[in-house]
Write a structure and sequence with these properties.
The protein is mainly β. It contains 1 helix and 11 strands, in the order αβββββββββββ. The chain has a 7-stranded mixed sheet, covered by helices on one side. The protein has a 4-stranded antiparallel sheet with strand order 4-11-9-6, with no helix packed on it.
Length: about 150
């Protein structure tokens, strides 16, 4: 599925009035939902393994282990941006940040939002640990694979 097909699918879902849609195929997995203000939020499409067998009820896909940080200390792990976009620490400017330095996170916890093409993509932690450092300023542009947070997995 290419980017245009994904955008068309999200537009269709946005017009349908559905609150949440989860789509999983052999090639990808995507989750689209509305927040309380009606904005569309997606989780990044995740490529599925090419040789993955089809199952009646697929098990949750394990995310690849984040790369170790090399600029601070080798004991910290980076949470990186899965896409190009604008980094936001909270869902709305007046809301508190998803996470702050010193907060504990678990696998699957939301840590930020990256907006790309008017879609608000919730970024989830791939590891458990404590946030040591926020590497990006709120409302700043980010690149694909750019480190966003340092996490102490201990």
């Amino acid at each position: 599925m290419n980017a245009k097909e994904i955008k068309n699918m999200i537009d269709f879902i946005a017009k349908s009035g559905l609150a949440e849609v989860n789509i999983e195929t052999e090639e990808f997995k995507i989750k689209v939902k509305r927040d309380t203000e009606g904005r569309i939020i997606t989780t990044p499409a995740m490529p599925q393994p090419a040789a993955a067998p089809l199952a009646a009820s697929p098990a949750p896909q394990e995310a690849p282990a984040p790369a170790p940080a090399n600029d601070e200390s080798s004991k910290y792990i980076q949470i990186k941006s899965p896409m190009i976009g604008t980094f936001y620490r909270s869902p709305k400017p007046e809301d508190p940040s998803f996470v702050n330095v010193g907060d504990s996170v678990s696998v699957g916890d939301r840590v930020c939002i990256v907006e790309a093409m008017k879609l608000f993509n919730e970024i989830e932690s791939e590891i458990s640990g404590t946030i040591v450092k926020v590497l990006v300023e709120n409302a700043s542009p980010v690149e694909y694979d750019q480190p966003l947070f340092l996490v102490d997995p201990a």
